[in-house]
Amino acid sequence: SSRFLFFLAMQRVMKMIEPISLIFSYRCYVDDKVSKVAWLNRSNIIFAGQDKWSLDPRVDLVTKGQLEYSLRIQKVDVYDEGSYTCSIQTKQQPKTSQVYLIVQVPASIYKVSEDISVNEGRNVTLSCLASGRPEPTITWRLLDPSAEPLDGEEYLDILGIMRNQAGRYECRANNDVATPDSKYVTVVVNYPPSITKATDSETPVGRLGTLQCEAVAVPTAEFEWYRDEKRLFNTQATNIQILDKTSILMIANVTEEDYGNYTCVASNRLGEHRANVFLYRPGTGRDINGSACVSQSLWLLLVCSAFVFFKC
Asked: How far, in Å, CA of 19 to CA of 73, rounded?
Protein backbone atom coordinates (compact mmCIF):
# COMPACT_ATOMS: atom_id res chain seq x y z
CA SER A 1 0.00 0.00 0.00
CA SER A 2 1.13 3.54 -0.65
CA ARG A 3 2.52 5.50 2.26
CA PHE A 4 0.89 8.90 2.99
CA LEU A 5 1.79 11.33 5.77
CA PHE A 6 0.39 14.80 6.44
CA PHE A 7 1.17 17.29 9.19
CA LEU A 8 0.92 21.03 9.91
CA ALA A 9 3.74 23.20 11.17
CA MET A 10 3.34 26.83 12.10
CA GLN A 11 5.58 29.55 13.49
CA ARG A 12 4.22 31.74 16.30
CA VAL A 13 5.35 35.13 17.58
CA MET A 14 4.30 37.00 20.68
CA LYS A 15 3.19 40.17 18.89
CA MET A 16 1.57 40.39 15.47
CA ILE A 17 0.93 43.63 13.61
CA GLU A 18 -1.69 43.83 10.86
CA PRO A 19 -1.32 42.62 8.23
CA ILE A 20 -0.33 39.43 10.03
CA SER A 21 3.19 38.77 8.80
CA LEU A 22 3.50 35.08 9.56
CA ILE A 23 4.33 32.19 7.31
CA PHE A 24 2.25 29.04 7.66
CA SER A 25 3.40 25.81 6.02
CA TYR A 26 1.06 22.88 5.42
CA ARG A 27 3.32 19.89 4.80
CA CYS A 28 2.22 16.89 2.85
CA TYR A 29 4.55 13.89 2.30
CA VAL A 30 3.94 11.26 -0.34
CA ASP A 31 5.89 8.35 -1.82
CA ASP A 32 6.83 7.68 -5.42
CA LYS A 33 3.78 5.50 -6.03
CA VAL A 34 1.47 8.50 -6.04
CA SER A 35 0.36 9.46 -9.52
CA LYS A 36 -1.51 12.71 -8.85
CA VAL A 37 -1.49 15.23 -6.03
CA ALA A 38 -3.30 18.50 -5.39
CA TRP A 39 -3.95 21.19 -2.78
CA LEU A 40 -7.43 22.60 -2.30
CA ASN A 41 -8.86 25.42 -0.18
CA ARG A 42 -12.44 24.48 0.52
CA SER A 43 -13.55 23.45 -2.98
CA ASN A 44 -11.08 25.65 -4.85
CA ILE A 45 -7.95 24.10 -6.37
CA ILE A 46 -4.76 25.89 -5.31
CA PHE A 47 -2.23 23.54 -6.93
CA ALA A 48 -2.69 20.55 -9.21
CA GLY A 49 0.64 18.83 -9.30
CA GLN A 50 3.16 21.58 -9.99
CA ASP A 51 0.59 23.79 -11.74
CA LYS A 52 -0.56 26.78 -9.70
CA TRP A 53 -4.26 27.54 -10.07
CA SER A 54 -4.42 30.25 -7.42
CA LEU A 55 -3.72 33.87 -8.37
CA ASP A 56 -2.59 34.75 -4.85
CA PRO A 57 1.15 35.65 -4.97
CA ARG A 58 1.54 34.77 -1.28
CA VAL A 59 0.89 31.08 -1.94
CA ASP A 60 3.56 28.72 -3.24
CA LEU A 61 4.73 25.11 -3.11
CA VAL A 62 7.64 23.74 -1.11
CA THR A 63 9.00 20.50 -2.57
CA LYS A 64 12.05 18.48 -1.65
CA GLY A 65 12.62 15.74 -4.14
CA GLN A 66 9.55 13.66 -4.84
CA LEU A 67 8.48 13.08 -1.25
CA GLU A 68 7.39 16.52 0.01
CA TYR A 69 4.46 18.42 -1.38
CA SER A 70 3.88 21.30 1.03
CA LEU A 71 1.74 24.41 0.78
CA ARG A 72 3.13 27.68 2.12
CA ILE A 73 1.19 30.91 2.73
CA GLN A 74 3.12 34.07 3.48
CA LYS A 75 1.73 37.09 5.35
CA VAL A 76 -1.23 35.15 6.66
CA ASP A 77 -4.43 37.16 7.00
CA VAL A 78 -7.74 36.46 8.70
CA TYR A 79 -9.23 35.84 5.27
CA ASP A 80 -6.98 32.79 4.92
CA GLU A 81 -8.87 31.06 7.71
CA GLY A 82 -10.61 27.90 6.63
CA SER A 83 -10.18 24.29 5.54
CA TYR A 84 -7.20 23.10 3.44
CA THR A 85 -6.98 19.68 1.83
CA CYS A 86 -4.06 17.71 0.49
CA SER A 87 -5.41 15.14 -2.03
CA ILE A 88 -3.47 12.31 -3.64
CA GLN A 89 -4.32 9.68 -6.23
CA THR A 90 -2.75 6.25 -6.02
CA LYS A 91 -3.27 3.21 -8.21
CA GLN A 92 -5.67 1.81 -5.65
CA GLN A 93 -7.76 4.80 -4.41
CA PRO A 94 -7.69 8.54 -3.71
CA LYS A 95 -6.75 9.73 -0.24
CA THR A 96 -7.14 13.11 1.44
CA SER A 97 -6.03 14.78 4.62
CA GLN A 98 -7.54 17.99 5.86
CA VAL A 99 -6.48 20.75 8.22
CA TYR A 100 -8.41 23.77 9.44
CA LEU A 101 -6.48 27.02 9.78
CA ILE A 102 -7.59 29.24 12.66
CA VAL A 103 -6.01 32.67 12.44
CA GLN A 104 -5.47 34.34 15.81
CA VAL A 105 -5.03 38.10 16.02
CA PRO A 106 -3.61 39.75 19.16
CA ALA A 107 -5.87 42.12 21.07
CA SER A 108 -5.52 45.72 19.90
CA ILE A 109 -7.24 48.77 21.37
CA TYR A 110 -8.33 50.99 18.49
CA LYS A 111 -10.38 53.58 20.39
CA VAL A 112 -10.22 54.88 23.95
CA SER A 113 -11.66 57.92 25.71
CA GLU A 114 -9.60 61.09 25.73
CA ASP A 115 -8.35 62.62 28.98
CA ILE A 116 -11.21 64.32 30.77
CA SER A 117 -11.75 67.06 33.35
CA VAL A 118 -15.05 66.91 35.25
CA ASN A 119 -16.63 68.53 38.30
CA GLU A 120 -17.05 66.43 41.42
CA GLY A 121 -20.42 64.71 41.63
CA ARG A 122 -20.92 64.35 37.88
CA ASN A 123 -21.38 61.01 36.10
CA VAL A 124 -18.48 59.84 33.95
CA THR A 125 -18.34 57.15 31.24
CA LEU A 126 -15.01 55.94 29.87
CA SER A 127 -14.91 53.83 26.72
CA CYS A 128 -12.36 51.35 25.42
CA LEU A 129 -12.90 49.46 22.17
CA ALA A 130 -10.63 46.64 21.03
CA SER A 131 -10.39 44.07 18.25
CA GLY A 132 -8.76 40.66 18.02
CA ARG A 133 -9.39 36.95 17.40
CA PRO A 134 -10.64 35.53 19.65
CA GLU A 135 -12.65 38.47 21.00
CA PRO A 136 -10.56 40.18 23.69
CA THR A 137 -11.63 40.71 27.27
CA ILE A 138 -11.43 44.31 28.48
CA THR A 139 -10.62 45.25 32.07
CA TRP A 140 -10.17 48.58 33.88
CA ARG A 141 -7.99 49.72 36.78
CA LEU A 142 -7.44 53.01 38.58
CA LEU A 143 -3.68 52.87 38.92
CA ASP A 144 -3.42 55.08 41.98
CA PRO A 145 -3.52 54.16 44.77
CA SER A 146 -4.64 50.51 44.82
CA ALA A 147 -4.75 49.49 41.13
CA GLU A 148 -7.59 47.10 41.93
CA PRO A 149 -9.83 45.92 39.04
CA LEU A 150 -12.99 47.96 38.43
CA ASP A 151 -16.39 46.76 37.28
CA GLY A 152 -16.50 47.61 33.59
CA GLU A 153 -15.81 46.23 30.15
CA GLU A 154 -16.00 48.29 26.97
CA TYR A 155 -17.63 51.05 29.02
CA LEU A 156 -16.72 52.05 32.57
CA ASP A 157 -19.48 54.01 34.34
CA ILE A 158 -18.58 56.14 37.37
CA LEU A 159 -21.66 57.57 39.07
CA GLY A 160 -21.17 60.76 41.08
CA ILE A 161 -17.40 60.80 40.77
CA MET A 162 -15.47 61.89 43.87
CA ARG A 163 -12.09 63.56 44.20
CA ASN A 164 -10.47 60.33 45.40
CA GLN A 165 -11.46 58.73 42.08
CA ALA A 166 -9.30 61.11 40.07
CA GLY A 167 -6.17 59.69 38.46
CA ARG A 168 -4.87 57.54 35.63
CA TYR A 169 -7.17 54.78 34.45
CA GLU A 170 -5.78 51.78 32.57
CA CYS A 171 -7.80 49.92 29.95
CA ARG A 172 -6.36 46.51 29.11
CA ALA A 173 -7.45 44.20 26.27
CA ASN A 174 -6.36 40.57 26.39
CA ASN A 175 -7.22 37.45 24.39
CA ASP A 176 -4.22 35.29 25.41
CA VAL A 177 -2.74 35.41 21.89
CA ALA A 178 0.06 37.81 22.71
CA THR A 179 0.99 40.50 25.23
CA PRO A 180 -2.16 42.42 26.30
CA ASP A 181 -2.65 45.86 24.81
CA SER A 182 -3.06 48.77 27.25
CA LYS A 183 -4.18 52.37 26.91
CA TYR A 184 -4.58 55.08 29.55
CA VAL A 185 -7.07 57.82 30.38
CA THR A 186 -6.38 60.61 32.86
CA VAL A 187 -9.41 61.85 34.79
CA VAL A 188 -9.19 65.20 36.60
CA VAL A 189 -11.90 65.85 39.20
CA ASN A 190 -12.53 69.52 39.97
CA TYR A 191 -13.77 70.59 43.41
CA PRO A 192 -13.96 73.82 45.44
CA PRO A 193 -11.29 74.74 48.01
CA SER A 194 -11.20 73.28 51.48
CA ILE A 195 -8.86 74.85 54.02
CA THR A 196 -7.19 71.96 55.79
CA LYS A 197 -4.85 73.89 58.07
CA ALA A 198 -4.81 77.43 59.44
CA THR A 199 -1.92 78.30 61.77
CA ASP A 200 -1.94 81.12 64.32
CA SER A 201 1.20 82.99 65.35
CA GLU A 202 2.40 83.90 68.85
CA THR A 203 4.81 86.74 68.18
CA PRO A 204 6.43 89.35 70.47
CA VAL A 205 6.40 93.03 69.52
CA GLY A 206 9.20 93.85 67.12
CA ARG A 207 9.51 90.32 65.74
CA LEU A 208 8.38 88.72 62.48
CA GLY A 209 4.86 87.28 62.66
CA THR A 210 3.95 84.39 60.33
CA LEU A 211 0.41 83.18 59.62
CA GLN A 212 -0.20 80.15 57.42
CA CYS A 213 -3.18 78.84 55.48
CA GLU A 214 -3.25 75.52 53.59
CA ALA A 215 -6.02 74.48 51.17
CA VAL A 216 -6.72 71.64 48.76
CA ALA A 217 -8.63 72.34 45.54
CA VAL A 218 -8.79 71.54 41.83
CA PRO A 219 -8.09 73.82 40.05
CA THR A 220 -5.46 75.02 42.52
CA ALA A 221 -6.81 77.62 44.94
CA GLU A 222 -5.91 81.30 44.83
CA PHE A 223 -5.36 82.99 48.20
CA GLU A 224 -6.34 86.36 49.64
CA TRP A 225 -5.67 87.77 53.12
CA TYR A 226 -7.84 90.23 55.05
CA ARG A 227 -7.54 92.19 58.28
CA ASP A 228 -11.12 92.83 59.32
CA GLU A 229 -12.70 93.75 55.94
CA LYS A 230 -9.55 95.23 54.43
CA ARG A 231 -7.63 93.14 51.93
CA LEU A 232 -3.88 92.92 52.48
CA PHE A 233 -1.25 93.23 49.77
CA ASN A 234 2.52 93.08 49.63
CA THR A 235 3.97 96.17 51.33
CA GLN A 236 7.02 96.97 53.42
CA ALA A 237 5.12 95.80 56.48
CA THR A 238 3.42 92.70 55.03
CA ASN A 239 4.50 90.07 52.56
CA ILE A 240 2.33 87.30 51.07
CA GLN A 241 3.90 84.15 49.65
CA ILE A 242 2.24 81.15 48.00
CA LEU A 243 4.00 77.79 48.09
CA ASP A 244 1.95 75.14 46.25
CA LYS A 245 -1.10 74.57 48.50
CA THR A 246 0.02 76.95 51.26
CA SER A 247 -0.17 80.73 51.59
CA ILE A 248 2.00 82.51 54.16
CA LEU A 249 1.32 86.01 55.50
CA MET A 250 4.44 87.56 57.03
CA ILE A 251 4.17 90.69 59.17
CA ALA A 252 7.48 92.40 59.75
CA ASN A 253 8.26 94.18 63.02
CA VAL A 254 4.98 93.35 64.76
CA THR A 255 3.34 96.21 66.71
CA GLU A 256 0.47 96.27 69.19
CA GLU A 257 -1.87 97.34 66.37
CA ASP A 258 -1.03 94.18 64.40
CA TYR A 259 -2.46 91.80 67.00
CA GLY A 260 -5.86 90.37 66.25
CA ASN A 261 -7.92 88.38 63.79
CA TYR A 262 -6.91 87.78 60.16
CA THR A 263 -8.93 85.99 57.47
CA CYS A 264 -7.53 83.65 54.83
CA VAL A 265 -9.71 83.15 51.74
CA ALA A 266 -9.00 80.26 49.34
CA SER A 267 -10.99 80.34 46.09
CA ASN A 268 -11.29 78.88 42.60
CA ARG A 269 -14.00 78.97 39.95
CA LEU A 270 -16.08 76.44 41.91
CA GLY A 271 -16.24 78.30 45.20
CA GLU A 272 -14.32 79.61 48.19
CA HIS A 273 -13.51 78.73 51.80
CA ARG A 274 -12.57 81.11 54.64
CA ALA A 275 -10.67 80.55 57.86
CA ASN A 276 -9.72 82.87 60.73
CA VAL A 277 -6.19 82.94 62.12
CA PHE A 278 -4.79 85.03 64.92
CA LEU A 279 -1.67 87.00 65.60
CA TYR A 280 -1.33 87.35 69.38
CA ARG A 281 1.05 88.46 72.07
CA PRO A 282 3.02 85.79 73.95
CA GLY A 283 1.41 84.82 77.24
CA THR A 284 -2.17 85.56 76.23
CA GLY A 285 -2.66 81.92 75.08
CA ARG A 286 -4.94 80.45 72.39
CA ASP A 287 -7.16 77.38 72.32
CA ILE A 288 -7.50 75.19 69.21
CA ASN A 289 -10.51 77.21 68.08
CA GLY A 290 -8.59 80.45 68.10
CA SER A 291 -10.24 82.04 71.16
CA ALA A 292 -8.15 83.83 73.76
CA CYS A 293 -8.32 81.50 76.75
CA VAL A 294 -6.35 83.61 79.21
CA SER A 295 -7.86 86.93 78.08
CA GLN A 296 -11.35 85.47 78.24
CA SER A 297 -10.70 84.05 81.72
CA LEU A 298 -9.44 87.42 82.98
CA TRP A 299 -12.48 89.12 81.52
CA LEU A 300 -14.85 86.68 83.25
CA LEU A 301 -12.97 87.13 86.55
CA LEU A 302 -13.35 90.90 86.35
CA VAL A 303 -17.06 90.60 85.56
CA CYS A 304 -17.64 88.22 88.48
CA SER A 305 -15.72 90.42 90.89
CA ALA A 306 -17.69 93.47 89.91
CA PHE A 307 -20.96 91.53 90.30
CA VAL A 308 -20.01 90.45 93.89
CA PHE A 309 -18.90 93.98 94.83
CA PHE A 310 -22.13 95.67 93.74
CA LYS A 311 -24.25 92.93 95.34
CA CYS A 312 -22.61 93.59 98.62
From this structure: 13
